[in-house]
Structure formats: structure tokens, C-alpha cells
TrEMBL record:
Residues binding ATP, per UniProt: 148-155
Cited SMART domains: KISc
Protein species of origin: Lithospermum erythrorhizon (Purple gromwell)
Keyword tags: ATP-binding, Motor protein, Nucleotide-binding
Kinesin motor domain: residues covered: 68-278
Region span, Disordered: 1-67
Name of one Pfam family that matches: Kinesin
The name this protein goes by in its record: Microtubule binding motor protein
InterPro entries: Kinesin-like_fam, Kinesin_motor_dom, Kinesin_motor_dom_sf, P-loop_NTPase
Transmembrane intervals: none
Similarity comment: family membership: Belongs to the TRAFAC class myosin-kinesin ATPase superfamily. Kinesin family.
Record bears the keyword Signal: no
GO biological process per UniProt: microtubule-based movement
PROSITE patterns: KINESIN_MOTOR_2
């Protein structure tokens, strides 16, 4: 049986700078509902709850733990450029689940989890994403989906860099660690990596794979002709992603000197020959 763990980067269509991005993760055994990423950051979450006063309670822990979809918000610190320009923080994390507005204290939004500007990506991964990876390795499809305006920190969170690896490299390493820890099972991992640019799907692992079609069959939705590469180690998977990044559309915006101008979907497909769940 194959299971998929997908990770996606998506910009929301919103004017003005905002230093927070959201991560949605889901784990379920049936097809997903689509997520509307076009509303404003504070109201974009399917799971966010507007709290009208300081005294309102956050959703009960028990209620949240039943959900297949969780929504988290990560605030990045102001950049040197923003500090120089005298930018001020408008929204901030009040504890682990509440987002508040500096100018309107009566407005607050509750999320499954809120991370402040000093939180490391490792911590975001452990709290908000790791369960989707361990679930996928057990046979439950999962998606980690990052969205936010340009320069809000999606690439930093999902890809990261050498000093602070993002959710994708951490997930790939985790998947291989799980395989090593379960020698009685036979796994095979494959990866695919695509971009959606101007509503056109391009295969980032195969430069010839341009303008691919999205199809549906009894198993679900798939991209016709997408290349799926077998990966043998974390370094192998990460080198494929790095090669794929070379083919990606990037540019500059007023808010981000190196802005990813496309949405991307990285998929890790796990095949297990002798798992109980298969
Ligand atoms: N948590 C963080 N801590 C420190 N710096 C961060 C953090 N998040 C983002 N940054 C920095 O902020 C800048 C913008 O982040 P990033 O490129 O990840 O945004 P983005 O949402 O991917 O933007 P775009 O949609 O334009 O590609 C980068 O210089 C990045 O290094």
C-alpha cells in the first residue's frame, strides 16, 4: 500500500506586509476537502475562532484533539529592513493559542497553536507537523500546507537553510529514521516535486514535464506524467529538492528580495510491502 505525505507552499492574495504565516496539517484516510487560502490572515483559518473579549475561553483541548485538520500560526521577527523603516508589530501571539491585535485589544483569534517570533522551526515541526509524518509511515495520508502573504516566512518554515532546516528536510529525515527503527518492515520511498506557476503545473524533477494535466481516477486525483524518483537516503531526497529548486520561478517583491513566485507541492510516497495496515 502507498501513503502520501504532501507539503505545499501557498501565498494568500492579500495586500500589505504581514509577518505571520499559517501551517495547516491534516491526517486522514479519505480524500481531503479543499482549503480556501484567499481570506485575510486573521480569518483565513477554517479552524480559527474569533474571541470577542479577553475572558472568552479557547476551544477545549479535548475538542481540538479530535480534529483531523489543525491550523497553526507562526510569527517571524521583524527583518532589519523593517526595523530600519520603523515598522511596528500589529498582531502578536498571546500564549500558545491566541493571536491578538495591538491596536484593538478586544479582538483575538484562537488557533490550534500559535508560535511567537523566537520559536525555532524544529519546535514548529515537533508540535505541528511530526504527527503527519509518523501517521504517513503508518499508512495514513497527511498534508502539511503553509500559506501566508509574500515574505511572511513560508519558505523559511518549509525549506529553511543549513543553519535552520525547514519542515521538508526534517520530515524526510524523520521518515528515514522511522524506517531504520522498524527493520522488520520493507519500505520504499519515492518523491515528486512540482510547481504551480500562473495556473500551470510544471515538474521540478523533470524539466521536460511542463504544463502537466491534473486527472482523477478511482484512486483519487493525480498529476499525469509526474516523475516519482525512488530515494535511498535523506541526502538523496534533499539533493533532488535542491535540483528542483533550480527550475523554479523566483523573483523580487517590495517585501521580499528573493520571493518564490510559484506554489510548490513536494510529495513523499511511502510503499510498504509487509505492514499490517497495508
Ligand atoms: N522565523 C523566522 N526567523 C527569522 N527570519 C525569518 C523567519 N521567517 C522568515 N524569515 C526571513 O524573512 C524573509 C522572508 O521569508 P520567506 O522568504 O520565507 O517568505 P515567503 O513567505 O516564502 O515569501 P514569498 O511568498 O515571497 O516567497 C527571509 O529573509 C527569511 O529568512
Amino acid at each position: 500500500m502507498t501513503t502520501r505525505i504532501g507539503s505545499k507552499n501557498k501565498k494568500v492574495n492579500s495586500k500589505g506586509a504581514n509577518s505571520s504565516s499559517s501551517t495547516t496539517s491534516s491526517s486522514k484516510q479519505y480524500p481531503e476537502v479543499s482549503i480556501d487560502g484567499l481570506s485575510s490572515p486573521a480569518s483565513s483559518s477554517m479552524r480559527s475562532k474569533l474571541l470577542h473579549s479577553h475572558s472568552d475561553n479557547i476551544p477545549a483541548e479535548a475538542e481540538r484533539s479530535k480534529e483531523n485538520v489543525t491550523v497553526t500560526v507562526r510569527f517571524r521577527p521583524l527583518s532589519q529592513r523593517e526595523i530600519r523603516q520603523g515598522e511596528e508589530i500589529a498582531w502578536y501571539a498571546d500564549g500558545d493559542t491566541i493571536v491578538r491585535n495591538e491596536n484593538t485589544p478586544s479582538i483575538a483569534y484562537a488557533y490550534d497553536r500559535v508560535f511567537g517570533p523566537t520559536t525555532t522551526t524544529r519546535h514548529v515541526y515537533d508540535v505541528a507537523a511530526q504527527h503527519a509524518i509518523s501517521g504517513a509511515m503508518e499508512g495514513i495520508n497527511g498534508t502539511i500546507f503553509a500559506y501566508g502573504v509574500t515574505s511572511s516566512g513560508k519558505t523559511h518554515t518549509m525549506h529553511g537553510d543549513q543553519r535552520s532546516p525547514g519542515i521538508i528536510p526534517l520530515a524526510v529525515k524523520d521518515a528515514f529514521s522511522i524506517i531504520q527503527e522498524t527493520p522488520n518492515r520493507e519500505f520504499l520511498l519515492r518523491v515528486s516535486y512540482l510547481e504551480i506557476y500562473n495556473e500551470v503545473v510544471n515538474d521540478l524533477l523533470n524539466p521536460a514535464g511542463q504544463n502537466l494535466r491534473i486527472r482523477e481516477d478511482a484512486q483519487g486525483t493525480f498529476v499525469e506524467g509526474i516523475k516519482e524518483e525512488v530515494v535511498l537516503s535523506p541526502a538523496h531526497a534533499l539533493s533532488l529538492i535542491a535540483a528542483g529548486e533550480e527550475h523554479r520561478h523566483v523573483g523580487s517583491t517590495n517585501f521580499n528580495l528573493l520571493s518564490s513566485r510559484s506554489h510548490t507541492i513536494f510529495t513523499l510516497i511511502r510503499f510498504c510491502r509487509n505492514c499490517k495496515t497495508c
